[in-house]
Specification:
Mean pLDDT of chain B: 94
Shape of chain B: globular
CATH class of chain B: Alpha Beta
Radius of gyration of chain B: 10 Å
Order of helices and strands of chain B: EHEEHE
Largest interface: A-B, 19 and 17 residues
Number of domains of chain A: 1
Largest sheet of chain A: 5 strands, mixed
Low-confidence stretches of chain A: 1-21
Number of helices of chain A: 20
Oligomer: heterodimer
Number of domains of chain B: 1
Low-confidence stretches of chain B: none
Helix content of chain A: 40-55%
Distance between the termini of chain A: 73 Å
Strand content of chain B: 15-25%
Helix content of chain B: 10-25%
Strand content of chain A: 5-15%
CATH superfamily of chain A: Cytochrome P450
Structural class of chain A: alpha+beta
Largest sheet of chain B: 2 strands, antiparallel
Radius of gyration of chain A: 23 Å
Mean pLDDT of chain A: 91
Strand order of the largest sheet of chain A: 1-2-10-7-3
Number of strands of chain A: 14
Amino acid sequence: MTATDNEFGVDFDELFAEEEEEDFLPATAVDKPEYAAVDISTKAFWAQTSELRDEAFAELRRTDPVSWQRPVEDAVTPDPDDPGYWALVKHEHITQVSKDNQTFISGQGVLFDMLPRLFLQMTQSFLAMDDPRHQKLRMLVSAAFTPKQIKKISDDIKRAAKEIVDDLLATAVDGVGEVELVSTVAEKLPNRMFCDLFGVPEELRDLTATAAGDIIAWADLERLGDRLPDEVQVEAAAILHDIAEQLIDARKTAEIPSEDLFTNLMNAEVDGEHLNEFEIGAFFVLMAVAGTDTTKHTTSFALKALAENPDQLAFLREDFDGRIGTAIEEFIRYASPVMTFRRTCVKETELGGKRIIPGDKVVLFYPSGSFDEDVFADPWRFDLARDPNPHLGFGGGGVHFCLGNQLAKQMLRAIFEELVFRLESWETAEPELLGTNFMRGVKRMQLRFVPAPAGAGVG
Amino acid sequence: MRLAIDYDKCTGLGLCEAEAPDVFEVQADGTLLCLDENPSEALRAEVESACASCPTEALRIIED
């Protein structure tokens, strides 16, 4: 086929050649030190609990804060030419890189892997973009997540939280209940709020949540079954695109226009053009993952931590309204659900005495930064009065800072207001953790609880 | 005190509004509106928190 001999009249050879040249700076092994003595790329490292992982991070924070690491074993698309990455484990470096979008870009992907460009476009939307387009796309929905907008829906959030805990309490027999926490409580509120905001109908909600979970579970053996990680991801992404298409069609034929973020996306113009269905689908994939899978894990970890720290639970109950604000920051720091994002260097620079050159991958280890002894006194203490608490649970600042942070906090506030007063006491079993290097997640955790006496509900 | 706001850096997240709602307000189009560019001393604590909370460092206090 000659260069422009196709129905689009587009020169594909040139298009792709140019893209590779412009957008995908290759990482090189040139001038790199030996791989670090503390290896954080093995499957075994990521299969541990975060307490054990932090022993390695702490060692790196002390001895090799910007270390050169071999490629991770759990790659979605293993690449024999991948020389490795720089591991950033100090709070200081993570925030510096997060805020310097001129030197460290997101457009070449934000996970360990050099994922194919098409897959990035299909699943990550503005997460894997740089300004100005990143900001233009993000602005299409950002106004829905401001404090004023979240306040407007806070009654909906409270009502949903109450219903979820009503259902939980209804499972108790003879004053004791035992349930699997994630499916009964933790995942319910974020799933519901995401689907409400984007106008996902009831019959598609479970499928949306499952597919969103599959996208981030590429290295979890149970979730994969006999499928390959890239198969699972592409399949889950295709399901979410298909759901997005159904939502688009429903809005095109509806007599009464719906008022939701999905409709906003369809009506929005960026640089004078509407988003096409593929772009809307990608946006939906990103929002579905970000909106459903993070607050869920924070809820599980925080409920466990409260059971294990009765003094902190008592402290919170004493003055819930006055203390829940700082408590939530500590819930998020302690849970640290998002563990890694990557940037790619495009301008030679120096970090912690190491020379970083264009093409180098730089991976930000948020939980390590959020437990950095130089910033947090006694970091492994679960301290609901910790203030200030500049944790990296929403990222290290900069233009990619978590868009849904206010919504997440409002949901945590609502669900914990119900839980800490309507349960008299509870204990949690050891959680079954998601085995990935991206999300610190709880797959399942048994919860045993005693309901508070009738009438002792939310004050 | 006076506020210096770099609107090019602002991404309209509204963390400032959460800290100091009498001073900052994100509009429906995602842009930031400053309700009070010379906030009174009584608001100092919350304005300082707002400036510190900005993830893109778009807010600064200038002392008179």
